């Protein structure tokens, strides 16, 4: 006997199919979209949007569920970020993508998300941190719901210290950093790790300044010049880095700078080219023009064609792809299952295989030490930001080479 499909059954079936086809999995971007670091937040947002587009162009996750991106302005404030978190949750977001607001803001977001998850275990949210590099976030303050997709401060400083070990012209170092958790950590790790690599180096002074509030760094440059420093270890980023370079250039102060990520910030290459003196060395998973990474070069060209913007941060672009891989591994949209699937997940990224260490949720990815320098056709082949300055590869280290021990004692929900 044939089974007849009644009009009611047909309608129910069509409705169910339509509901599945329209189903989305919401993620929320929370980073600065106004204020002194708005250009940084917009650049990071563009990378996330591109990654979401890549996932959706391939059919989304779980054979048809598309990612939907919501965006919120953190205003570089812990309180504003927590308000944005609640708004994102109210709108149905289950994953938060953040990292460009500074470690103190990200830490507050992680704490707020964790408390929310304790109260709402069936609607828990995951925090994917693409840029805040405080080692405590995967150390003594590690949290099951937080995942770090960038090399942390200790990993980055270790790569720079390894490089500085082979630079005998570096003798007198000044520590100038933003006055917040990350700035103080960058200074501490710089003194410890560079001091260990080069016991002969002298640390001739140290200063901390308010983040995003200094309009003229010339008083700091005058103070640094008086110490006889030849090198500045600084964790400054955004306008705080470009204004520092400008002040030094105006004063004719020719320093070497060692930084974690400034070269990936808009305006930094332009600032170096305008000062015409000084060498800014920084570290990231990739830099434009790096040899031997054709996947990233192809991606950078496609990104520029589609967005009209320069591509700078593969890890931010592949954050949505990493999430998609975890969802497909979990075969579920349940965030507890997704978080568990992320642990020890190896992902074939455009910079090569990367692994999310399960014990502390720290991604192990390569780091390239590179210096902003004039195009010479040999070591620097491509200019950037409309200048004849680009990036010179100085050293490359694998994630495993830079991996640190951890104080993390992960508490996993039942």
Could you characterize what this model shows?
The protein is α/β, with parallel strands linked by helices and 414 residues long. It contains 14 helices and 15 strands. Helix 3 packs parallel to helix 4 (103-119) and helix 12 packs across helix 13 (335-342). It starts with 6 loop residues before the first helix and ends in a 12-residue tail after the last helix.
Average pLDDT number: 93
Would you count the extended β strands for me?
A: 15
Helix content: 40-55%
End-to-end separation in angstroms reads 49 Å
Topology of this protein?
Elements lengths: L6 H16 L1 E8 L6 H20 L8 E8 L4 H13 L4 E4 L4 H17 L6 E4 L16 E3 L4 H12 L7 E7 L2 H17 L4 E8 L8 H10 L3 E3 L5 H12 L5 E3 L9 H8 L3 E6 L9 H14 L6 H4 L1 H12 L4 H8 L3 E4 L2 E6 L4 E3 L2 E8 L14 E9 L1 H4 L12
Parallel strand pairs: 1-2, 1-3, 3-4, 4-5, 6-7, 6-8, 8-9, 9-10
Antiparallel strand pairs: 10-14, 11-12, 12-13, 14-15
Helix pairs in contact: 2-12, 3-4, 5-6, 8-9, 12-13
Essential attributes:
seven-stranded mixed beta sheet, disordered N terminus, 14 helices, Rossmann fold, alpha/beta, 414 residues, single chain
Provide a compact summary of the structure.
With 414 residues, the protein is an alpha/beta fold. The protein has helices spanning 7-22, 38-57, 78-90, 103-119, 153-164, 181-197, 218-227, 239-250, 268-275, 294-307, 314-317, 319-330, 335-342, 399-402; strands spanning 24-31, 66-73, 95-98, 126-129, 146-148, 172-178, 202-209, 231-233, 256-258, 279-284, 346-349, 352-357, 362-364, 367-374, 389-397. The longest helix has 20 residues, at 38-57.
């Amino acid at each position: 006997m044939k089974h007849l499909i009644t009009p009611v059954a047909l309608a129910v079936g069509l409705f169910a199919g339509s509901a599945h086809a329209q189903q989305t999995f919401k993620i929320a971007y929370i980073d600065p979209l106004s204020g002194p670091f708005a250009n940084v937040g917009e650049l990071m947002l563009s990378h996330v949007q591109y990654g979401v587009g890549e996932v959706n162009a391939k059919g989304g996750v779980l054979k048809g569920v598309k990612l939907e991106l919501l965006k919120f302005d953190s205003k570089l404030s812990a309180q504003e970020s927590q308000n944005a978190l609640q708004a994102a949750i109210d709108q149905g977001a289950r994953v938060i993508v953040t990292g460009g607001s500074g470690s103190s803001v990200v830490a507050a977001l992680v704490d707020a998300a964790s408390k929310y998850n304790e109260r709402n275990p069936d609607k828990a949210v995951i925090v994917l941190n693409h840029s805040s590099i405080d080692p405590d976030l995967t150390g003594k303050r590690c949290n099951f719901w937080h995942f770090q997709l960038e090399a942390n401060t200790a990993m980055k400083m270790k790569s720079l210290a390894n490089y500085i070990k082979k630079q005998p012209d570096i003798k007198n170092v000044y520590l100038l950093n933003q006055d917040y958790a990350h700035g103080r950590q960058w200074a501490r790790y710089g003194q410890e790790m560079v001091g260990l690599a080069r016991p002969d180096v002298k640390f001739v002074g140290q200063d901390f300044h308010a983040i995003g509030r200094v309009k003229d760094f010339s008083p700091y440059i005058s103070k640094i010049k008086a110490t006889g420093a030849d090198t500045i270890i600084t964790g400054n980023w955004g306008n705080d880095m470009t204004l520092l370079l400008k002040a030094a250039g105006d004063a004719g102060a020719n320093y070497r700078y060692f930084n974690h990520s400034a070269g990936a910030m808009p305006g930094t290459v332009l600032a170096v080219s305008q000062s015409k003196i000084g060498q800014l060395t920084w570290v990231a998973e990739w830099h434009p023009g790096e040899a031997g990474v054709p996947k990233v070069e192809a991606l950078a060209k496609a990104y520029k064609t589609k967005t009209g913007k320069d591509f700078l941060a593969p890890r931010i672009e592949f954050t949505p792809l990493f999430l998609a891989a975890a969802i497909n591994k979990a075969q579920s949209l349940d965030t507890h299952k997704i978080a568990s699937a992320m642990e020890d997940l190896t992902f074939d990224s455009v910079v090569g295989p990367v692994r999310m260490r399960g014990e502390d949720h720290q991604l192990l990815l390569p780091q390239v030490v590179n210096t902003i320098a004039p195009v010479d056709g040999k070591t620097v082949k491509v200019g950037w930001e409309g200048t004849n300055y680009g990036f010179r590869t100085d050293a490359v280290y694998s994630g495993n080479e830079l991996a640190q021990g951890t104080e993390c004692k992960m508490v996993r929900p039942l």
